[in-house]
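Moderator note: this is an archived Q&A kept for reference. The question asked for a predicted structure of one protein chain; the sequence and the answer are reproduced below.
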Amino acid sequence: MSREGVPPLPTKQPAMAFQDAAKLSLADSQLRFNMGKATTTIRGKRVKAVQELPDWEALREAGRAIKERTLRHLDKYLIQFEESVTRVGGKVHWAADGDDANRIVADLVKAQGAREVVKIKSLTTDEIGLNEALAHQGITAHETDLAELIIQLADERSSHILVPAIHKSRAEIRELFRRTLENTQDLSDDPKALAAAARAHLRKKFLTVPVAVSGVNFGVAETGTVCIVESEGNGRMCLTLPRVLISVMGIEKLIPTWRDMEVYLQLLPRSSTAERMNPYTSFWTGLAPAGDGPDEFHLILLDDGRSRVLADREGRQALNCIRCSACLNICPVYERTGGHAYNSVYPGPIGAILTPQLVGVENAGSLPYASSLCGACYEVCPVKINIPEVLVHLRGKVVRHKQESLLGRLAPENLAMKALAKVFASPRRYAAMQKIGRQGQKLVVKRGVIDRLPGYLGGWTSVRDVYPVAPQTFREWWTQRERQPKVEPKQPPREETRP
């Protein structure tokens, strides 16, 4: 897939494998401090918020069941959703990929004679590189979410699904605002002062830009209602002030009925921000009467690889994600590396299973290995996505993809695994290899452990010690035991009984 003239997206062409990028992140002590402090705080708050609900596990199960049922009948619900949106005055556009969606948005903006748009925080538009595509057409996109604004001004990528600037400290943000915003030379690093500076900058855009672009948290098939949840009120401004509203929605964001919202509006805020309810929850159903909202509403339904994910019986559960980021905040790998190491719009555990499926394992084959498989992400997921299960499934796909090429078939790891498969397939070979290993390890065992292996095997011992082969295996012990003469246990003397 090409985007002529548009800078490549990290999700499409990762610049660096996760393992290499992670080493750079781990060397940044300020980043590790910022990430550790932020994720620890969010984790603690989430636990308290979840424990308030006695039926939390029932809600998780309901959230999973609704999503899975929707995906099984997605074709039917999408048609119903299009009919519902059209009935209430909206216009639906279908986009097969990011190029399609970007072209549709750019054409709609040009039709208004506009050269600027205001945007609500949206991972879907980040995924398709909308800002870059609009800039290529001479259209400027202004991010209105505070964290997204920080990222845009810093010319960086987001490092967290919910808190894009989680890797930055207040002092770093203050210096950024001083360099890029007007009248901020005396700005302090107080959060209120930083927010006020951003508000003064954005207020002019809300009142003058005629087109707004949003993502979508949920779309309701039966009513054609679209939902956005946010914390700052910038989204509400974008949804009501501009004349034209363009919403870009991944097709997996659909839920069947209005009543299903009661499940997700309990699961999402407690899992993401540890709040009982989002500060701002906006619903819009077509055009608003009496000018209380946009005059035009366009909804772009985006596939961009989602149909391919849906066809994978094991991997499709990644589409259940409601973008709460709970799996990021609990992940020991993400906490230490931050989001940039993933080279993806979707970082953390959910990104490790979603990105390779959207862009193909040939483009993001290192991400399924960006996990310790500890299972903590599965335990906190509000819709019960079994992330470790999908990670293992994708690792298998990565290996099979490598085996398709001659270079991959001749790779040391592949040859070693094939040899091990033959060894494990025969008890006799397995026992012989144990004896050989016991003799060969004498050169590398030190103080009872193997702390360094030579050559390609050195990767196993770069961050851990390996236990040596035991002096006697269980089979050897059992065989030795069976060969020993059996000793009959002594019977207690029988007591004589008198008649």
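Archived answer notes: Residues 1-13 have pLDDT under 50 and may be disordered.
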